[in-house]
Design a protein that fits this description.
This protein is an alpha+beta fold and about 180 residues long. It is built from 6 helices and 5 strands. Strand 3 and strand 4 form a beta hairpin.
Length: about 180
């Protein structure tokens, strides 16, 4: 079982590595960290506590904390969607934290709600680390590789930023991959 202290240390380490801070409101921060811990126990991975997860890794992969949308949100607004990660100007109270637009594409939001039966209050899908798709596995997926560092992933779209070298989405090239087997 993951402890709240482990979740905090992991978030602090990631924040420091990428030049961010954790939200300075200790009560709010504790709630966010508890949400990450709870989601990790529930799904097997720390999905973002401010978004609806399905429990299906393939669908939720873009909202595993730190989510794919953190860096663009922090660049534009100074903090991520749930305000777990913030820039220095937020910590110094030079900018207020206000609600920001959701960057997660509507089709991904719709898939999350459809897996949950349309309401966020239902129990999560029980499959852990299982790929569930109406299409044959691999249909619609591309192999994306970062032209800067060589990072490779299989997704419908490239990540907003490379998780290894932080290159922007434009640095990814994609190839269609046919899965045989």
């Amino acid at each position: 079982m993951t402890t709240l202290d482990q979740v905090r240390r992991r978030a602090e380490s990631d924040a420091k590595t990428h030049g961010y801070y954790l939200n300075p409101d200790e009560d709010f921060l504790t709630d966010l960290l508890e949400g990450l811990r709870h989601n990790e126990e529930r799904y097997g991975y720390p999905s973002c506590p401010c978004r609806l997860a399905t429990g299906v890794f393939e669908i939720d992969r873009d909202i595993i904390c730190p989510c794919d949308y953190r860096d663009p949100d922090c660049d534009e607004y100074g903090y991520c969607y749930c305000a777990l990660y913030v820039r220095k100007d937020i910590v110094e109270k030079k900018l207020p934290i206000k609600p920001i637009p959701e960057r997660r594409p509507l089709e991904k939001l719709a898939r999350a709600y459809s897996k949950r039966g349309g309401t966020p209050s239902e129990k999560p899908v029980e499959e852990k680390n299982t790929v569930v798709s109406e299409k044959p596995f691999g249909a619609g997926l591309k192999m994306w590789y970062c032209r800067q560092c060589g990072y490779v992933c299989f997704r419908e779209e490239p990540p907003y930023v490379c998780p290894i070298c932080k290159a922007k989405r434009e640095m990814f090239s994609g190839l269609r991959v046919k899965i045989v087997g």
